[in-house]
Specification:
Number of helices: 1
Helix content: under 10%
Strand content: 35-45%
Distance between the termini: 58 Å
Order of helices and strands: EEEEHEEEEEEEEEE
Radius of gyration: 25 Å
Amino acid sequence: GGIKIGSVTRDMQINIIGCEGQQPPVIISREDTCVEAGDTLVMDIRAFDPDGDNVELSGTGGPFELSKSPAILEPETAVGPDTVTVTLTWPTICNHVQDQPYFTYFKAQDDGTPVNLVALKTITIKVIGPAPRDPTAEAIGSSIHVNWRKSPCAKVVKYEIYRRIGFYGFVPGYCETGVPAYTGYSLIHTTSSIDDTTFIDDGGGNGML
């Protein structure tokens, strides 16, 4: 049921050349990853050429184009025989948090003959909001008083408090956010603002027995 609003025609030329025995470069790096806002992501990307040719490695993508605290690549382009490495360093801030991941693109090109062969790799980076800091829980009478430190990210709109009967020892996995259902925790309260950093759990008025 859509309405056509435009189109693009692309014209390209493809040259097919025999490259017997010639192999393209190989890019080695960590796979898709995430970082908590406020932390600095440091990641090495390495490229090598199986034929021992000179290889040139460069990168681009969303994190490098940000106006505030962008990622940097050192060196911007690495060139050398056989193997080269670049280091991505990204000091993230709260404004980088978003639902969708950032895409980075890396290109390695050799100087082989009769044609320069190329390898491409895309790595996604998810910037997640920082977890609540310094939570405490104190039993006072028949209730539990829970406190935590205000989030450093001004765009936070609420906090969620979960409860579980019995110790579970939940340790989030790498890049795992929220409270998964398999932990057995139930959502019991949602605050109304970033400034609400205290909650008294009285069991819905029945007390915590």
